[in-house]
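Model it.
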Amino acid sequence: MKVRGWMVGLVASGLIVGPASVWADEDDDDAVIIELDEEDETDDQAEEDDEFIIELDEVDEEVVEDADEEFERVVGTIQVIGQRPQEIASVPGSATIVTEEDLESQAPTSGNEVLRTIPGVHVRDEEGIGLRPNIGIRGLDPSRSRQILALEDGVPIALAPYGEPELYYAPAIERMERVELVKGSGSILFGPQTIGGVVNYITADPPEEFQASAELRAGNFGYYGGRATVGDTVGDFGYHLGVMHQRFEGPRALNLRVTDVTGKGRYEFSPMSNIIFKAHFYDESSNATYLGLTQPQFEENRNFNFAENDVLAVNRYGLSLTHNHLFGTGLLLQTTAYGYYTARPWNRQDFDRADDGRNYDRVIDGQGRDVTGALVRPEDGSAVFFRDTMSERDREFYVGGIEPRATMDFQFGQVDNELIFGARIHSETAFEERIDSDLDGGDVSVRASEVRQGYALAAYAQNRFMLFDERLQVSPGLRVETFWNERRIDRTRVDGEPTDLDPPRSNSDTVVALIPGMGLSYQLIDELTLFAGVHRGFAPPRTKDAVTTDGDLLELDAEYSINYEVGLRGQIQDYLAGSLAGFVLDFSNQIIPPAEAAGATADSPGGLINEGETTHFGVEADVRFDTAALLDLGFQLPLGVTYTWVHAEFGDAWRPTIRGNRLPY
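Modeled.
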């Protein structure tokens, strides 16, 4: 059976993506036939009626030599953002790929530097090295990247993607082969947290030949970094191992230590089937703190950090397994199972902003001086009074799931189609404790303890209709999300004393959402594509917001957005490329504290309602020009310009003090 159109297939030891038809040779079980689309055939292939047969036991060299110009051969897992990142012109919406060549030329120290080169993206640094990215898209709040979906090789990386979507871990950009970002309708293939868009970090696959590398970096503020990698393919097995260590004192005595180890393997069962597995270990320790400076302290020295006893540790261990199988009828099945554990204990010294008559460990005045033993302590609000006690917020997260995804090329009448459909079962559990102790770690007491659980089931389908010789591509899609969550409080303060609750306070909630989308792209000329789209964004309420500490269910609904966009994307050979897009984002049903103008009363339970609304509209553009490529000098000299203009303001339900104001993002 033959299937025409864009075909993704496993050939030899990897995946190929190309404008071709692929089918099994009925006369030879050990061969496949590849037919090239007419516009991509070579003279030699045209003489052979657009077909060539590849014997599978000889395919390794022959595929590369005979089809180098026709196919992009990707070895390993392909987790595609939107439609097909290798075919960016046909993506029905705003999408950006930061390629391996881009990463090599930028030599970034963090993913934040890379994301800043993408139009419509705002990244706020926190500690100067991108440990906890704060990513906002098209005017959305960037805090802890709550309103985007972050993936690594297609697997979520947030603490708990549904119930607690904060990013306390950022993939090391040194490990990445490319970065993909989509803001258009293709994001409905992924979820949750798709109000702004989807960022996917793609790691390097095992190389075809033996490779080993090592690098050392050094910079100011006590920055040191080292990384070593090794990889090879021996027979049917390929591997890639990377080890990285970083140290960074930072301008505010961060004292960062990071160790990152990743192993990735690939085993070929047959030319049409393989399995890819990845293991990841991450260990981080720093003196990160939430303590800010008073105004006099900031004016004296903005780099002060008096929270010298605060310690944040992040430990993450992850495993993923992806099986790829290409059926002869034109069906690619990818099944990914994943699981990861994240621990985030954060021990912080207690403090007061005014003298409360305690026996303080330290008192730091507005000029940054230790005045603990002074006869008169500052009373003007410029000082920080450190107690002799510590409070640790200890959180642990267990996340796992399995997702089968199918990509099928078929013809209906005279119309070529590509259908992507799949489902995901997902589980997440969080354990949280508040542990008090004295400064030396003694006199330990558990003040509060709770467990949060969530189970999600998602299903999705998106079909791409290719019309008028594939110049017009229309992509309708639908995603269905169901999320059940429960919060159980086992220990909390009762009349000021930590007390075990019997029975515990608990409650649960369920959110069901339909998430439709529609995108189109039209190739005006070979170098210029028009795209447009509309889709719904989705973010379920955090479990801690849906159920209060008293066990009350607030019956919060999910947050939703309607995202519209239209734009142009073009590329002239390999030296000039760019895009221009206009967008409107209507973000409604936001979970906010109630305002009296919205009907709130003094006894409103929990203080959270689905009434927030913001409207965002703007324009984003980027141009990339390479003089060296234009002059065929044999090296790269890229110049890129990115511009974003956004107008976003608060709606009627917000507090009067900010209602109608612009968002600060």
